[in-house]
Amino acid sequence: MNLVENTIPESPLQQIQDALLTKHGVRLSIKRDDLLHPIIHGNKWRKLKYNLVAFAHSGKSELLTFGGAFSNHLYASAAAGKIFRLSTRAIVRGPQLDQRNPTLRFAKACGMQLHPVTRIEYRQRNSPEYLEQLQQRFTKAFILPEGGTNAAALKGVAELANSLPEHQFLVCATGSGGTLAGLLSGQTQTQVMGIAVLKNAEYLKTQIAKLQPSPNCDWRLLCDHHDAGYGRFSPELWRFCQWFERTHKVPLEPIYSGKMLYALWQLIEQDYFPSGSHIIAIHTGGLQGKDGLRYRGLIGAN
User: Fold this and answer.
1) Hey, is 178 helix, strand or coil?
2) Which domains does the chain have, with CATH numbers?
3) pLDDT of 127-161, one tens digit each?
4) CA 226 – CA 248 distance, rounded (Å)
5) Parallel/antiparallel/unpaired status of strands 278-283 and 218-222
6) Rounded to whole angstroms, how far apart are CA atoms 166 and 188?
7) With contact defined as beta carbons under 8 Å apart, do 63 and 141 qualify?
């Protein structure tokens, strides 16, 4: 399994034309990583790529990772297992599995073995003692952190930064901080901006700095655009996502990329970016999450 030589081609860059951009004198391009692969797309493929290479050289025979019931990472890891014929397991947050949950149904259909744990146990997922217990229980497992964020993940995300044309601002949604830290590892002479999608995200600044202590450019994390917190979104945000898809033919979900673009639109309206700036926003995929939102009745069928 030589994934470096047999890699997925780069995703396209889509130029957005809109009266708001013209009014404020800025250019906006969207890096369409949602088109990177039909199933394993966005930042999940970027993070998985070199972790799968490491797994192939580890001597282990199965991949074990962590995720919530609607996790994009769990979905992508299960898909990778199916595509590359790997044995996969996941420690799933929550004491029971909802057999109708679309994300979990997909994971099981891919052959992933799911191990539900209580929320209390799940909080130990980064504890060295807990990880050692899991390693003793699953002796053949290559353990991948929740979200796939580690040094190998940063290497994959850096390739995204290296693929981009000249720009002044690079913007991404930020959940765990891995994507932002990976962008800082690339050769981009710009300002990288993260839009935190969860409340009280200031702690991520320390985490990002720990992941990438020697960034190649200036960066900042904006923590006031979470729209009520992780997994939550206002009717206004969802209407924006629907409008953006109709107008610019870019599908969005309101948890990550939709929330990021909604914040970016407001910042442009507020003249945050100097006239003449070229902004690149990264669409990190995660569109499978819309199935989970529909399943829970949080968005309509269309």
Assistant:
1) helix
2) 13-39+154-295 (3.40.50.1100), 42-148 (3.40.50.1100)
3) 999 999 999 999 999 999 999 999 999 999 999 99
4) 23
5) unpaired
6) 8
7) yes
